[in-house]
Each structure stands twice: as structure tokens, then as C-alpha cells.
Amino acid sequence: MKPRVEVVALDCLMVRLFDEIAEANMPWMLAASESLRAAFAGHLIDLVPSYTTLMVHYDLTALSPAQARELIAEALIDLSPNASAGGKCHVLPVWYDLSVGPELSLLSQRSGLAMDEVIRCHSEREYQVFALGFAPGFAFMGLVEEILAAPRLNTPRKKVAAGSVGIAERQTAAYPVVSPGGWNLIGRTPAKLFDRERDGYSLMQPGDTVRFEAVSHAEFINLGGDDTPLEAQA
Predict the structure, then answer these.
(1) How many independent structural domains does the chain possess?
(2) CATH (domain of 129)
(3) Quick check: is 59 in a domain?
(4) 70 with 116, same domain?
């Protein structure tokens, strides 16, 4: 790991720890995040983690860019992951069905797997939450099995239902709110992913892990899910 510091804005610096996305990055990202928060203390406005970078937004009235760089360099000296550190593990129930996940058939065709096998392949592993973005509470997770990887839709949908679970390349995610989107939809979760009354607003945070659990239509409805077909919501 050879950290690099890049300028984002007058009061923002990007700390690039890695060049490639990997689940093994996360312990180092969490350790760097904790160390940077401690180093900047009250002069930190925001710290935004991503797959390979940490964006440091600091108080320019309290620190010069040179001082900010010095703090970053000091924070990363002898950086070491904390073996006991780790986020929460979330189990999200998902109703996998063509009416709410129309790309199930597309992924089946691309992979050569039956739709039941696509569902099993997606739901049998635990995913790392790498970053939040795009929409409040939207967690970018990975990595899905290569056989399920699929590019985003050529034409994004104007309206994707809240709770929609999708795949883009080797990422997977669930839409927390109704929004446009171009991911390959394969199901829907009744889980409330974004809540203004929740501490931190988002159900998931970088460093957490997620496992999707296939449930029946009846279970989905009992959990408060909305089974309105996607086309009917457009």
C-alpha cells in the first residue's frame, strides 16, 4: 500500500490507498478512517470513504492545505488494521420475482444458469459494504460472483421502486428510495434502508456486511413489502 494524496478542492484532499477494488481493502480503509478522524479532530468537516479512497473535507479557516497534508501523513504512519474492528452484519429478506426483478431472466440468459440458480448464487454469499452514495442510504456492495456480473442498462429507468435489489458489474445494491436507476433488477426487499429518525440515517455503513435471504411472496408481504409490479410504478 502506497498512499497518495490528491487535491479535490480548496478544502478537500483525496487519500488514495489502493488502485484496485478488493474486499481485503476494507480493514485498511477502516483503520485509515479512524486514524484520520482522530488526527483532524474538530477541524474535520466530513470524511467520505469509498472503495479505494478517503475524501477528507477539512476546515480551511483552521488548517492550511500544507497542514492538512501533514496531518494525513502522520495519521498513516504505521497504519495497521484492527483485527477486532468490523461493522454489523445485516440480513436483508428479498423476494426474487420477475414482476419486481425483470432482469432475472437476462442474468439467467447471460450466465447460462436457471433463474433459481441465479437467486441462489446471489443470496448465498456475504457482501462487503464499500461506500454510500448516489442516493441517501444507497450502499454499494460487492463483490458478486463473476458469472452474475452484468453492465448497467443502456437506458436507465426513470423510476425504480424503493427496495429494488440490483446488480451492476460486480456490485450489488438495494435502492433505499424511489429514484431513477440503471442497475439490473432481480428482486425487492421490504427493509427500510433510509430513515431520517435513525442515527446515521442509513441502515448500512461502510465496513458492514450484508447477506440477502430469499423469502416467499407471503413472507415479503408480511414484512411490509410492496409487491406492485415495476411497470405499474413507472
Answers:
(1) 2
(2) 2.40.100.10
(3) yes
(4) no
Q: What pLDDT, on the 0 to 100 scale, is given for residue 85?
A: 61
User: Residues of the chain with pLDDT > 90: what percent?
Assistant: 78
The answer to whether residues 66 and 93 belong to one domain is: no
Separation CA 61–CA 38 (nearest Å):
19
Q: How confident is the model at residue 108 (pLDDT cuts 50, 70, 90)?
A: very high
Same domain, 108 and 182: yes
pTM: 0.84
Domain identity same for 117 and 214: yes
Amino acid at site 87: G
CA distance 37 to 143: 27
Please, which residues have CB within 8 angstroms of residue 158's CB and are 6 or more apart in sequence? Answer: 180, 234
**Secondary structure class of 145 (helix, strand, coil):** coil
Residue ending a domain, among 75, 101, 127, is: 75
Q: Does the pLDDT at position 116 exceed 60? A: yes
Sign of CA dihedral 29, 30, 32, 33: positive
Contact 100, 229 (CB under 8 A): yes
Do 27 and 106 belong to one domain? no
**With the CA atoms of 40, 82, 142 and 54 taken in that order, what torsion angle do they form, in degrees rounded to the nearest 10?**
20
Distance in angstroms (rounded) separating the CA atoms of residues 127 and 144: 8
Could you tell me which residues come within 8 angstroms of residue 118 by beta carbon, excluding any fewer than 6 positions away? 104, 107, 108, 111, 148, 186
What pLDDT, on the 0 to 100 scale, is given for residue 201? Answer: 84
Q: What is the extent of the structural domain holding 141? A: 89-233
- pLDDT of 156 reads 94
Burial of 205 (0-12, 13-18, 19+ CB in 10 A): middle
